DNA sequence: CTCGCGAGTGAAACATGTTTCACTTTCTGC
DNA sequence: GCAGAAAGTGAAACATGTTTCACTCGCGAG
């Protein structure tokens, strides 16, 4: 529909994946998308918002993918971990873009708030869908069986852990492999309790 | 000891609390600290690193406070929640500074990596101390009873949830009150399991 | 068809993070 | 006390996010 907007987002993703946040120069984005700088700023009020919007578009793609190809697993835990594995693999496939987006998301600039909230809501919905083992929350699900308090809490929890683990990776605290390990360890604790998470004594 | 460095950090905190990340102008920091711009950049290689260093200094203060005044509570869960309440209150006491620091921490700029890791390590130590109910991990503790896998996993988990909740607040996803609610809900799930966290049916 | 308007344009201006460099001051080992 | 090194200085230059503004163009209403 909005051809111009999509082109801008394409360019932003391309530049971000090429050289990270700093490589996304607004002048370059505008030039490569074939629009004037003022037009770019009319669509996106800041660089942060632009990158958040790019991420949100990717989330839409993911939603469609999960709908036709839901996370598999015997238990809620397995499905959630499978879903987070897919999500995380997507981030690591474009690591520089991922870092740029994390930076934009955590920047806290007001112009990006709405986009961040939208992204957060999408991932939350997908997480609850994974908990339930469905492709997505249809209107019927959402009305007939709205997310329970438990589902909401677990989805929020797992998303927060996943997000923080990614930020840790981006900041240099942990490696790519450790991100998934942390998510899996977290899922074990959340779904089975601290006691089941290790052979050592409880705390 | 390093008078100059401390003065710079004081100014950074002051400006950040006054008007957030954008209000910390490097020229102003240098001028108000009474040093040349080049000197500022010799101590701190970027604005992000400067803000992270300011946060790390606050963490040192907190360490001393927790040592003489450990988090109180009958159980590990209570003590960890009490500790996180103190930590979070500190953030909310200077909300604009807090937002600025979160932005800097999550920026992923290489120059700040070491500082972020140091901060992360400090909080982790304090979290384990709270789990155990001691003021801090003395050398004896760390050698005679190094953190178990469970302790490490729980501390990491709780720190991640707390951090992500704060970023959510900074980005406009949740309110100050919701941050503490999320941390408490997370603690309930982590320490007592999903089943104990609600009156509703399990997932 | 013409008018008026809203979107888009291009260029310039501005603000601020970061770098550079020649010069000065301060410290340190002898 | 001195020579050289290290640290600090001041100013300018640069890069880039963001704003502004006068101008143009295409299009729908009348």
What does the model show?
Chain A is 75% helix and 0% strand. By secondary structure, chain A is an all-alpha fold. The first copy, chain A, starts with a helix and ends in an 11-residue tail after the last helix. The mean pLDDT of chain A is 92. At the A-B interface, helix 6, helix 7, helix 9 and helix 10 of A face helix 6, helix 7, helix 9 and helix 10 of B. The structure holds a DNA duplex (30 and 30 nucleotides).
Characteristic terms for this protein:
mainly alpha, homodimer, Tetracycline Repressor, domain 2, DNA-binding, about 200 residues
Q: Uncertain spans of chain A, ≥5 residues at pLDDT below 50?
A: none
Helical stretch count of chain A? Answer: 10
Largest interface: A-B, 52 and 52 residues
Q: How would a crystallographer describe the biggest sheet of chain A?
A: none
Helical percentage of chain A: over 70%
Could you say how many structural domains of chain A there are in total? 1
The name of the CATH superfamily of chain A reads Tetracycline Repressor, domain 2
Q: Using the alpha-carbon principal axes, give the shape of chain A.
A: globular
Distance between the termini of chain A: 55 Å
Q: In angstroms, what is the radius of gyration of chain A?
A: 18 Å
N-to-C SSE string of chain A, H for helix and E for strand: HHHHHHHHHH
Instruction: Using the 3D structure, state the CATH architecture of chain A.
Output: Orthogonal Bundle
**CATH topology name of chain A:** Tetracycline Repressor, domain 2
Task: Note the beta-strand portion of chain A.
Answer: under 5%
Class from secondary-structure proportions of chain A: mainly alpha
């Amino acid at each position: 529909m909005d051809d111009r907007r999509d082109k801008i987002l394409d360019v932003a993703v391309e530049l971000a994946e090429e050289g990270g946040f700093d490589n996304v120069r607004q002048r370059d984005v505008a030039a490569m998308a074939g629009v004037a700088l003022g037009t770019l700023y009319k669509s996106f009020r800041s660089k942060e918002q632009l990158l958040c919007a790019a991420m949100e578009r990717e989330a839409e793609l993911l939603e469609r993918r999960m709908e036709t190809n839901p996370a598999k697993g015997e238990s809620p835990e397995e499905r959630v971990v499978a879903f987070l594995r897919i999500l995380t693999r997507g981030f690591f496939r474009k690591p520089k873009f991922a870092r740029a987006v994390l930076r934009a998301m955590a920047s806290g600039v007001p112009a990006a708030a709405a986009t961040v909230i939208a992204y957060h809501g999408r991932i939350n919905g997908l997480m609850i869908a994974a908990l339930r083992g469905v492709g997505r929350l249809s209107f019927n699900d959402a009305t007939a069986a709205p997310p329970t308090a438990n589902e909401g809490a677990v989805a929020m929890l797992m998303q927060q852990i996943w997000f923080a683990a990614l930020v840790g990776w981006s900041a240099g605290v942990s490696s790519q492999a450790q991100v998934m390990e942390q998510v899996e360890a977290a899922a074990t604790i959340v779904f089975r309790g601290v006691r089941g998470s290790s052979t050592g004594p409880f705390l």
